[in-house]
Amino acid sequence: MTGTSSVTANRIALVTGGGSGMGRASCLRLAREGRAVAVLDIDESGANETAQAIHEAGGKALAVAADVTQRDQVARAVAEVHAELGAIGILVNSAGMEHFSPFDTIDRDDWQRMLDVNLTGNFNVTQAVTPDMVSGGWGRIVNFTSISAQTGAANMVHYASAKGGIIAMTRSLAQALGPRGVTVNAIAPGLIDTPMARRAIDGGQFSLAVEQLVAHYPIPRMGTPEEAAAAVAFFASEDAGYITGQLLGVNGGTAA
Ligand SMILES: NC(=O)c1ccc[n+]([C@@H]2O[C@H](COP(=O)([O-])OP(=O)(O)OC[C@H]3O[C@@H](n4cnc5c(N)ncnc54)[C@H](O)[C@@H]3O)[C@@H](O)[C@H]2O)c1
Q1: The pLDDT of residue 11
Q2: pTM: predicted TM-score of the whole model, two decimal places
Q3: What pLDDT does residue 10 have?
């Protein structure tokens, strides 16, 4: 059984990248399950829209604008969540950005930006939030990596490298925080129908039309953000208390 303070703490979730795609779907799903949700995004209007949708459905939400690469902004955002909602028990790190480029044209700035947003951003927010979880004796961290870190991605060496770092961070943090009541798991989406995926499709980044691409998948379609959010909700639940350091593909069977 959990004590009163940890029960209170574990109702509050912080979702980065909550203003769009799988982050937004995760916010809506966690709110439906009774969590108060802090929606963090660099895109303030996206965060506001998600929070508004939660309010309209009768839930509790707070939009916080912050760039996950900026530690001062992250600290301010977490302080705002503390003041408005309380201690954070669930962290979903969904903020991320894509970039397609042949390896020989990736410049130093492209490389650094991918690492900053997709790997260091995750570190910044996680480090700011874990003290709440450790002091409450309960926590759930769910990180978004990518199928590209499992299979490789020829035109996304920098993106896939950052996402590979997320898998190693997940496994290492699971070991560091498990004894303190905090689980850390990762979701590796395949092709999920979000604004990010649509930008790639519309930008001609795949060699085949999307209908032809997904026709070869064991489940021959794109995934939905809600299907990814269902996996997030499971990792964030009480039921998942003995599951940590794991990688779950939400990919229609395209990688194991
Ligand atoms: N959609 C896919 O097919 C797919 C596949 C594999 C992995 N992913 C990963 O899943 C996660 C969610 O992706 P999505 O498809 O929902 O993307 P999305 O583009 O729809 O949403 C990402 C959100 O992150 C926010 N964001 C970007 N940079 C930020 C920053 N510096 N600080 C704060 N917020 C920032 C964006 O504003 C946006 O709201 C990402 O980490 C992505 O890399 C997506």
Answers
A1: 85
A2: 0.97
A3: 58
CB of 97 closer than 6 angstroms to any ligand 1 atom: yes
What atom of ligand 1 comes closest to residue 24's alpha carbon? 16
Rounded to the nearest whole angstrom, what is the distance from the C-alpha of residue 189 to the centroid of ligand 1?
11
Please list the residues that pair with 37 across neighbouring strands: 13, 61
Residues of the chain with pLDDT below 50 are: 1-7, 9
Please tell me the predicted confidence (pLDDT) of residue 18: 99
Cβ proximity of 5 and 136 under 8 Å: yes
In 71-155, the DSSP E strands lie at 90-93, 139-144
Residues 128, 93 contacting (CB under 8 angstroms): no
- Give the residue from 54, 177, 67, 188 showing the smallest Cα distance to 127: 177
CATH architecture of residue range(s) 4-192+225-249: 3-Layer(aba) Sandwich (3.40)
Structure-token pair, residue 80: 């705002």
DSSP3 helix / strand / coil % (the chain, rounded to 5): 50, 15, 30
Torsion angle of the four alpha carbons 146, 151, 155, 157, in this order, in degrees rounded to the nearest 10: 70
Per-residue CA distances from 85 to 12, 13, 43, 249 (Å): 7, 9, 21, 32
Torsion of CA 115, 168, 150, 110, to 10 degrees: 10
Cβ atoms within 10 Å of 242's Cβ, excluding its own: 7
Q: Which residue, by CA, sits nearest to atom 26 of ligand 1?
A: 95
Domain ranges of the chain: 4-192+225-249
